[in-house]
Structures are given as C-alpha cells and as structure tokens.
Amino acid sequence: TELDRIRNFSIVAHIDHGKSTLADRLIQLTGTVAQRDMKEQMLDAMDIERERGITIKANSVRIEYPAKDGHTYILNLIDTPGHVDFAYEVSRSMRAVEGSLLVVDASQGVEAQTLANVYQAIDADHEIVPVLNKIDLPAAEPDRVKEQIEDVIGIDASDAIPISAKSGMGIPDVLEAIVQRLPAPKGDRDAPLKAMLVDSWYDSYLGVVVLIRVMDGVIRKGDTIRMIKTKATYKLDKLAVLKPQMVDIAELGPGEIGVFTASIKQVRDTRVGDTITHERAQCATALPGFKPAQPVVFCGLFPVDSAEFDALRDAIEKLALNDASFSYEMETSAALGFGFRCGFLGLLHLEVVRDRLEREYDIDLITTAPSVVYHIHMRDGEMRELHNPADMPDLTLVNHIEEPRIKATIMVPDDYLGEVLKLCQDRRGIQLDLTYAGSRAMVVYDLPLNEVVFDFYDRLKSVTKGYASFDYQITGYREDVLVKMSILVNDEPVDALSLMVHRDRAEMRGRAMCEKLKELIPRHMFKIPIQAAIGGRVIARETIAALRKDVTAKCYGGDVTRKKKLLEKQKAGKKKMRQFGKVEIPQQAFINALKMD
Ligand code: GTP
C-alpha cells in the first residue's frame, strides 16, 4: 500500500468516555466485521476486560475506508489501555502511530487520565483530533468542553467533532477527519527492514503473536528476521493483519501494522520496543527502544487450601507467559504456608491477575496486603530492595529507608476540593499545585506511593461521590522514618499482616487495624488478644471476647435439618478461613484489615 493511503492512529480518553464504543462504531461503519459477528467492545478480548469494561492489553485493528476523495485508505487503530496502571503501555504503543483521536465525554469534560494520555500523545509528536462524545446526553455541554480542552490541554479545539458513539452520529465525520487531518506515515520501501515490536501475546493455538509496525523496508512470510536487542533469529511462519481477527497477508511495507508468528516460545523472549530487521540485510540503526515496565506493587498470593499449591504454580506460570510485566517468586510464610510473592504494575493489575487465577483456574486465594518496593540502605553501604515487609532486616543493621514517591494529578469539582485536600494531607501528601479550569480544580500532590497503593483510589471516589479523577507517575525515592509494624493474634505474629508504616502514623494505623481485626475475626471459645507492635513494643491492643454459647444452641432443640444446615454453612465458611495456631482468620481479613475509613 502506498504510504499516503495509510493512516495510523490511537484513541486517547479517560476511562468511560467512550473509547471502546467509538472503536466499535468505526469497525462497524467500515464493514470490517460483518454485522452478525459484531459484539460490543470488539477490541476487549479478554472476558474480564469485557466484564469490567476496561481495556488492558493494547490491541490493534486494520480498517479499510473508502474516503470522499474516491480513494480507499487503510486505517490502523492501535487500542491503548485507559487505566493509570498501564500508562506505560500507552506511551509505548503511541510510538507506533502518527496521530490520535482525543475523545472527551461532553457531559464530563477533561479528566485526569485525559490529561495524562494526551500528554503522551503530544510527547510522541502526534497530530491530535479532538472528538466530543456523548452529545446525545442532555447534560452534554460541547462548547464548554471545547473551551476546557483549549484552556487545560492547550490544543486547538475549534474543529472538535461532536459525536455520539452510542447512536453512531458523527462517526462518518471522524473517519473523514482521520484521513484529512492526520498525517500519512513516512518510510523507505527500498531500505533494509526496520520494524518496531509494539506488543506480543500468547495465543494457545498459535503460540507467541508479535504485533509490529514497519518503519522501512518490507517484511514477507517466510523471511528470516533478527531482533536487535535480544539478538534472536526467527523464521516467520505466519504474517497477518488484524481485522480484528487475523487475516493472512503476503507482505507488510512501510507504515503498515500487522502481526507475525515465528515459533517463539514465550512472551518473555520478545522485548517490546525492540527493532526487527532481516537476518541478511540488517538496518544500520536500531529504534531507541523502551525500558521494560517495572512492577511497583507486590503482594503474596497463597492458596486457601495448601493442596492447591501445584495448581497455583501452574496457573501463575501460564499467566506470566502472556504478561511480561507480572513477576513472581516462591514465598513461604509461617502463617500461610507456600505461595508466591508477585509483582504488579499497580493495584488494578493486581486485581485483574487475582481474578483470573480465581476464575479461570478456579483456585481460592489469600492475597496479602499490597506493599511497595522500599530501598533499605544498610550500614555497610549495601542497598537492598524490600518487596515484603516480613523480610525487613534487623534494624540495627539498617542505616536508612527510602520509599517511592509519586506525582498525583487529581481533577475534581470545586465542591469536593476540601475533602480531596484533606485526604491527600492525611496520606502525607505535599501540595505542588492548585489551578482551576472553570468550576473544576486541578491539584497536584507529591505523595508516598505506599499511602496510595492500598485504598486511596476508593477513598477518593467515595469522598467525591465519584466525581474526581486521578492519575499518577512515580517520581523517585526519598528517605523517611519508616518502621515495620507487626500484628500479633493470640500472641503469635502473623507475618502476612505485617506492614511498613510511617512512624508518626504507626499508632493510628495500629489501632485501626486492631479494631478492624476485632470485627473480622469471629469469636472463638477462648479470649483472643490482638496487638500491633513495633519491634518489641506494643502500640495498640484489642481483645475478642470468648464465645459463650454453642452456635447450634439457638436452634430450638429438636430441629435437626436446621442444625444440619447451620453446620454445613459453617463448613463452607471454613474453606475461606485460615488456621493460625488455635485461631481461624477469614481470608478477606488480610485485605480488609488495612482499609482506612
Ligand atoms: P475503558 O474501556 O474502560 O477505557 O472505557 P471506554 O472509554 O472504552 O468507554 P466505553 O466505550 O466502554 O463507554 C463507557 C460507557 O459510556 C458505556 O456504558 C457506553 O455505553 C457509554 N457510551 C459510550 N458512548 C456513548 C455516547 O455517545 N452516548 C451515551 N449516552 N453513552 C455512551
């Protein structure tokens, strides 16, 4: 295909502003997918994505569009994830295209992720076409939102396209704008092959599938290619384009986007951002490449039933095949037995992985409290990364501890600003900026990541009735006075409940956790003390009173079926419990104990 008949683009939007719905409409209107095969949210392949309505893995679709100028254009849409955890994948896939549609919900306006994502598009030198979605809603204010786009983002919005992705209104204008307003790709067909490895995933039939964008040269089925960073050589088995299902193609030239398979064993053998060239005629320079995404949140995953450990290991290994940003290593806990310490890009990523393990592999899991990665500077000058508070070295050997900090951007209607400032202040935040765009405030805070990973996002949503939006990036590590707090249940330390806290907040957190655990742990036949301690010093204490009556006593004497039912119910409940010495702790206690409210 000639370069000037190709347009490559992505869609940037805040979550729920309608990115997937618009993508569906573009696919539908151009007849890329036959009407009867059209499912909602075509691009969100995984069930969980569909269920939660979030897009996780970047994906791509090739659309053929007969434009008003009489020519047929090839439009390649690379779908990008919308959630903050996956910001890194957004920035990567944007390097593969020349333009972006900026979708803003005309009833909501610009939100934090709109900003974060559009800045990435600007960084990637994209031409940007603003699109105002949901104008069918009575609350839509396209003019106000146009103004806001200009004020807050600083791009011209006078030609913003009003649409309703839901009804299909305005979609033909979007297609025309893609052709007229976005630039064609550049590239040299006669140069040696240079292609960018945009993404890769594991397909159970085909093995590893690699998504590429050709910069220069031509790639053909049967070619022997070389990946410059990993130095690996492969022979192409299959070359295809995504419509969005795979359709074989003989070759891909400059500006084109497609996939290949080449008997690659695992996703880890491919490096996103790597340069692909021909084994025989290699390109002179490689593309700049990307740093691999680093896990920032760690937690332990343990099977509720220890007999399921092998099944859990198999499931984790399978998941990791398809997700290079997920890391794991075996862990043993005195309380929970054998399990895995797993690393994630953020909390959403953690939840998605945990859900998949529980649902697709049917394993009941105990998830321990998420923790960030601390830098422990030892007296002897060594720096250790701490992924698990339980591994905290002896304090007399430690010189100081550093924790990761983030720059958080929050956009919120004026009325809730006070609540947001209070929340950030409570979480040890330092205000960096506060500006207004109409009746919405934009606050920027420097916050410790450990105060955010857990329930910050939930709290923010609840104190602002869902009106705030949030985005963050990690800025670096800073020293602070951090201590390890242990929790003792019935005088036994429960390692899975220990956590790192700021010294000034330890007492408050300790008290809150003991109170929570008092509610979460059922009464036993004996009294159970619950204590929070730093080193040997107890800083908070609660006691669960002993159970006086037999549980079945309240079933009037002879009703055997009722009694049986109650016992059955207890047995089912047991499955979700974990035994610590003589005490049983319900599995959700490990997470809920940490929620602050
Ligand atoms: P993520 O995949 O989570 O990033 O969200 P998204 O931006 O892809 O949003 P999605 O397309 O899933 O749309 C979010 C919600 O808005 C869905 O319930 C859609 O049905 C609805 N929606 C999308 N476009 C329109 C529109 O034009 N009008 C109205 N009224 N609703 C819309």
Automatic annotation (TrEMBL):
GO (cellular component) term, any one: plasma membrane
SUPFAM superfamilies named in the record: EF-G C-terminal domain-like (SSF54980), P-loop containing nucleoside triphosphate hydrolases (SSF52540)
BP GO annotations: positive regulation of translation
Primary residence: membrane
Subcellular location: Cell membrane
Tr-type G domain location: 4-186
InterPro entries, per database record: EF-4, EFG_III/V, EFG_V-like, EFTu-like_2, G_TR_CS, LepA_C_sf, LepA_CTD, LepA_IV
Catalytic activity entry: GTP + H2O = GDP + phosphate + H(+)
E.C. number: 3.6.5.n1
Keywords: Cell membrane, Elongation factor, GTP-binding, Hydrolase, Membrane, Nucleotide-binding, Protein biosynthesis
GO MF term (any one): translation elongation factor activity
Annotated binding of GTP, by residue: 16-21, 133-136
Membrane topology, from the record: Peripheral membrane protein
Major enzyme class: hydrolase
Similarity section: Belongs to the GTP-binding elongation factor family. LepA subfamily.
HAMAP family in the cross-refs: LepA
Biological role: Required for accurate and efficient protein synthesis under certain stress conditions. May act as a fidelity factor of the translation reaction, by catalyzing a one-codon backward translocation of tRNAs on improperly translocated ribosomes. Back-translocation proceeds from a post-translocation (POST) complex to a pre-translocation (PRE) complex, thus giving elongation factor G a second chance to translocate the tRNAs correctly. Binds to ribosomes in a GTP-dependent manner.
Protein name, as recorded: Elongation factor 4
Organism of this sequence: Allgaiera indica
Gene: lepA
